[in-house]
Design brief:
There is one protein chain. About 35% of the residues lie in helices and about 15% in strands. The protein is an alpha/beta fold and about 350 residues long. Strands 1, 2, 3, 4, 5, 6, 7, 8, 9, 10 and 11 form an eleven-stranded mixed beta sheet that branches. α2 packs antiparallel against α4 and α4 packs antiparallel against α5.
Length: about 350
Amino acid sequence: MKALELRVGKTAAKRLETEGWHADLIDGLIGASGGPKWLILGRMDRVLISDLLAERSRPLDAVGSSIGSWRHAAMAQPDPVEAYDRFEKAYLTQKYTSKKPTVPEITEVALWLMRSLLGESGERDVVEHPWLRSHIVTARGKGLNARQPGKRLIAGMGAAALGNALSRRTLPASFQRVVFAPQKATPLTPLLDGFGTEYVDLSEANVFNALMASGAIPYVFEGVYEIEGAGEGAFWDGGIIDYHFDLQRLPKGEVWLYPHFSSRTTVGWFDKFLPWRSDQQVSADQLIMICPTDEFLASLPFGKIPDRRDFGKIPESVREPYWQTCVDESQRLADEFSELIHGSNPLAGAIRL
């Protein structure tokens, strides 16, 4: 059984055929929201950053929301493999006092996870990395969604969900996209157009809070209410707008790599609840997607990868070894990815988009 699936658009396929896999091949990197689902990608990420990209000589735009931005922060550390190791260990062993922990308790654990990832000087490393330019995507609440948790926020989120069901074009009334990126980075169009997108200079003083805001799921984590350089407001999970990102809007003429936990994507968080918009297989000329095969996913315990619902459904004594098994099995993805980038056929087994 093959574990890794390679999906390639026309432009990307031509580049791969001509150049093969090399450190400067890709122009951009995407990291999606997904909470614990990242665990299936961690081993492959290690190969990507420490092997394929190790000799990178030009800037690389790394766009991430929620856990996607956290993964990029790990990649930006001086020893990214060690950063992944300590973050993975912390993530696997996170504990709560009950099956239904409070928002403050979940937030406290999330703060500990972020500090475990960044270590002593990780904020500076993210900002000053010589070529990895982190674009940390957040969503600033507007109207009722600019409130602290309570009845008004519930109403605001409900209104946003209803409007989104009619059209994604209604979401800018409820949320503004705020992207934290290095000052030298250029706005990424058309990928991050619309939603009143505002760019804020990423600095050592704001990177921690920007990363926390990017993963702040309303009623799961506490929002972040003030970020250096961005002022006051309610900053929420970037996945509200850009859950898996709109891959039809990748910059033309470029090649973007998307390590993902599935061959299917859902553009925005509210779209998860709309069958006609969720779990879509996309075709984009600029895209290289590397993801687990459906057969590999079905072979895992419970027939799936870890996800946030496991916290309430699976006892802690079962969840931790289950997640560890998935991580161990994901080494097959890393091994196959390594074989692909070092093999004689850069498009071996590729599915053409």
